[in-house]
Design goal:
The chain is an all-alpha fold. The chain has one domain (5-170). The protein is 71% helix and 0% strand. It has 8 helices and no strands. The chain has helices at 5-33, 35-42, 52-56, 60-73, 77-104, 117-131, 143-156, 163-170. Helix 1 (5-33) packs across helix 2, helix 4 (60-73) runs antiparallel to helix 5 (77-104) and helix 5 (77-104) packs across helix 6. The longest helix is centred in the first third of the chain and has 29 residues, at 5-33. It is globular, with a radius of gyration of 18 Å. The mean pLDDT is 91. The protein binds zinc ion (2 copies).
Length: 171
């Protein structure tokens, strides 16, 4: 299984695809119908945990299920692919936790990441989202690109009110 190039291809493609997926879930669901829970991440708090952690861990049971089922149910290539999907999701989830929760929000001792320009840019882009909630970037690893794209689009289109305030009042 581990020597199969397709296994790793699927793992990495799934991990990469999780970025646009998380961008969509964050923008449409967390800042939409699930704002009541995600709000805890945007408000200052003193405790170690926040309600939003439940949302952040939402995909873990599915990934675990895929991996456990893949290993238990058989030894075909299809079973291996299920494991690959679970691995890809896990890889993204762990990376997200380290960079977002650990590095940006200081919940893990990983501040050495600030030595890298890329992670500093990711942090700046994510901080922009915290300053103006309900406004992109909603993605994390491509946050700087998303922010640039969003700003370019705002400059092109004439402003009719503030889209941030508009979204907020719509909920
Ligand atoms: Zn948010
Ligand atoms: Zn955050």
């Amino acid at each position: 299984m581990l020597s199969d190039p397709l296994f790793w291809l699927v793992t990495f493609v799934v991990a990469a695809a999780m970025e646009p997926w998380s961008m969509w879930v964050h923008g449409r669901m967390w800042h939409g119908a699930l704002w009541w829970g995600h709000r805890s991440h945007h408000e200052p708090h003193t405790g170690r945990f926040e309600l939003n952690d439940v949302f952040a861990a939402m995909h873990a049971p599915l990934a675990m299920l895929l991996i456990i089922y893949g290993f238990e149910a058989g030894d075909t290539r299809l079973h291996h692919m299920l494991i690959a999907v679970g691995y890809g999701m896990t890889m993204f989830g762990v990376s997200y936790f380290i960079v977002h929760d650990g590095f940006i929000h200081g919940r893990l001792p990983v501040q050495f990441l600030a030595r890298f320009r890329y992670f500093r840019r990711v942090r700046n882009a994510h901080n922009a989202h915290h300053i103006r909630e309900h406004v992109p970037p909603y993605g994390l690893f491509l946050g700087p690109q998303e922010l640039r794209w969003h700003r370019a689009r705002r400059q092109r289109t004439p402003r009719i009110g503030d889209p941030g305030k508009h979204r907020a009042s719509a909920r």
